[in-house]
Design goal:
Strand order of the largest sheet: 4-3-6-7
Number of strands: 7
Order of helices and strands: EEEEEEE
Strand content: over 45%
Length: about 100
């Protein structure tokens, strides 16, 4: 399940470290976008294969949280990547590492 909460209008784009990390089996990924933009948030395995798309839509400016449930995945290192794309092209891209321990 995915839960998103809009709390405030941030001044900048930001991708936070997931919490908890290491995790089993769920973790929370938070991000902030400074203006309305198309947001893509995807999870990749250690060799770069896409595992899941958590967000792929236009979002208004705000702060958001996504719950990532990895119950069906195996132990290991995963990466999550955010891409925020505005009308003039890429606004923000960032990648963070997380560890699933069962």
């Amino acid at each position: 399940s995915i839960a998103e909460v809009e709390v405030k209008i941030p001044a900048k784009f930001e991708l936070s470290q997931n919490y908890p990390n290491p995790f089993n089996p769920t973790t929370t990924i938070s991000y902030e976008i400074a203006k309305e933009t198309n947001v893509s948030l995807k999870v990749y395995d250690a060799i770069g294969n896409e595992v899941v798309t958590l967000v792929n839509e236009t979002k208004p400016a705000g702060a958001y949280q996504v719950i990532f449930d990895a119950a069906s995945l195996s132990n290991g290192v995963y990466f999550y990547k955010i891409e925020a794309t505005g009308v003039n092209g890429s606004e923000f891209t960032n990648v963070k590492k997380m560890i699933l321990v069962k």
